[in-house]
Specification:
Length: about 240
């Protein structure tokens, strides 16, 4: 389905393809903590995520800017099944994951009960939470981007529209995801402060090609969830994924 144009996509056409030293220079002024665990309570509905039943708030890679009250979270998991833990974490905070190649198949060992040949075997989940630590900010106070690079060369940057919660590909506005973040009811305040959902390669053929090639063993995906205050990077959580 075609996605509507994102009004912020041209406003801050910036991302974090910077040398590690430059990223550190932009972030060092803030109190930032990188960790693994459970997302902020503002993004949780009861014991699960707002975007659907069975989605646990645990086992996320978390970067929190305590100064600005922003939390950025990523998680990889078997589609409809178990969460996947990082195999290693680099000195720059990048978490490395091995995820299943191919499309979704019945896999009782990883709690996958059904097959979906139109979906990749793994998903990545994301959360953006704002207004933490008493800050008077919401999603519209910053620019949020998801940068995904396939095999080191095919990069697509998706911009968050804070009004619709849809993420739009800067290179092709017909490609995007999100917009249905709140399958569990959420207040207007939560919806203004939180964006969260689960993404499958089956949604992104327009960016990364058909599942026959995008899910092939050996394919890599570099995923960065970024926050900017105007053109200044103020937060980034970074996962590197290898299909095996």
């Amino acid at each position: 389905m075609a996605k509507p144009a994102n009004p912020v996509s041209n406003a801050q056409n910036v991302h974090a393809d910077l040398p590690e030293q430059a990223i550190d220079a932009q972030l060092h002024k803030y109190d930032i903590v990188d960790s693994f665990g459970t997302v902020d309570t503002s993004a949780i509905s009861g014991s699960q995520m707002y975007y659907g039943d069975g989605n646990s708030p645990a086992h996320f890679h978390i970067e929190q800017n305590n100064t600005l009250g922003i939390q950025l979270d990523l998680k990889e998991h078997y589609r409809t099944g178990d969460d996947i833990t990082a195999s290693s974490v680099g000195t720059d905070g990048t978490a490395h994951f091995s995820v299943p190649a191919g499309t979704q198949v019945v896999d009782p060992a990883h709690d996958v009960g059904g097959a979906r040949p139109d979906r990749s075997a793994w998903n990545f989940d994301y959360v953006v939470a704002t207004g933490l630590n008493g800050q008077n900010t919401d999603l519209s106070s910053f620019t949020f981007k998801l940068e995904v690079t396939q095999n080191g060369t095919n990069t697509h940057i998706f911009d968050l529209n804070p009004a619709t919660h849809v993420w739009i590909d800067e290179a092709n506005p017909t490609v995007g995801f999100g917009g249905d973040d709140f399958n569990h009811p959420a207040s207007a305040s939560v919806q203004a402060h939180v964006a969260e959902n689960s993404v499958n390669l089956g949604y992104l053929a327009g960016a990364f090609g058909p599942l026959a090639t995008s899910t092939a063993a050996g394919t890599t995906y570099d995923i960065k969830l970024e926050a900017f205050d105007h053109t200044h990077l103020v937060g980034m959580v970074h996962d590197a994924v290898l299909l095996v």
